[in-house]
Amino acid sequence: MLELYQFEISHYCEKVRLILDYKGLTYKKIEVTPGIGQIDLYRISGQRQVPVLKDGSEIIADSTAIAKYLERQYPERPIIPTNPQQKALCFLLEELADQSIGQKSRMALFSGLTQNQNFRTSILPTATPDFLKQLVGAVPSDILNVLGVGVGLSPDVVKSAMEDLKQVLESLSMLLLDKPYLVADHPTLADFAVAGLSMYIKFPDGPYLDVPSNLRGKGVPGIADSTAFEPFFNWRDRLYAEYRKPLTATSSPASGPTSIQID
């Protein structure tokens, strides 16, 4: 069985989970313990960051590399177009998601947690210690401290990130005006990257993630609750409803790893 070494609330891991679900692949989630688990992960993958996919003796790190591997090894329900123009657009949008949405949404989320009293008090009181560890572990330590102190981010930097995110979401909403998916007549890597990496802007409103229930449907104030971006989030909700498998009573992530076995 495929094994996904992950943080449950990593948006890069969510990108991979969306792809795995779309392709109908069975996989086991293995929750990496921030700190010691990342050291073990480095021993087999050469990096401490998640996601890492284990497929038999194959170890694949990085969400884009995992997506390309899954496309080669499990070509049913393809996610990378063969048409050259569509393929180029697919990779451009994936890069936009990974770099712009992925990086700037982390700044925006942690800004909301540290600077917006209503958002902070609605999320943190019911957050479990494991959730907070995962949240901190999913974000590079030089960006923000979840408990309230911004490190190296001025208000101007956060404001710029927020404005950039709004522009990106507005552009994506326009792209989706008259078509169901971003690139082709079926979901592609671009769709799953954009949907997964937008998780921190607004968490999915459904039983898809093992997170505090009050976090579902919540997100960055001024974006997640803005009617201007409803077309985008409605599109994402439909993508989730059609392709993302909900959690079940037996699908909670495993603890660890303190050691990782290689076949």
TrEMBL record:
PROSITE patterns: GLUTAREDOXIN_2, GST_NTER. The keyword Transferase applies. Keywords: Transferase. InterPro entries: Glutathione-S-Trfase_C_sf, Glutathione_S-Trfase, Glutathione_S-Trfase_N, Thioredoxin-like_sf. Gene3D superfamilies: 1.20.1050.10, Glutaredoxin. Residues 1-78 form the GST N-terminal domain. One of its GO terms (molecular function) is maleylacetoacetate isomerase activity. GO terms for biological process: glutathione metabolic process; L-phenylalanine catabolic process. It comes from the Bacteria. This is Glutathione S-transferase. It comes from [Phormidium ambiguum] IAM M-71.
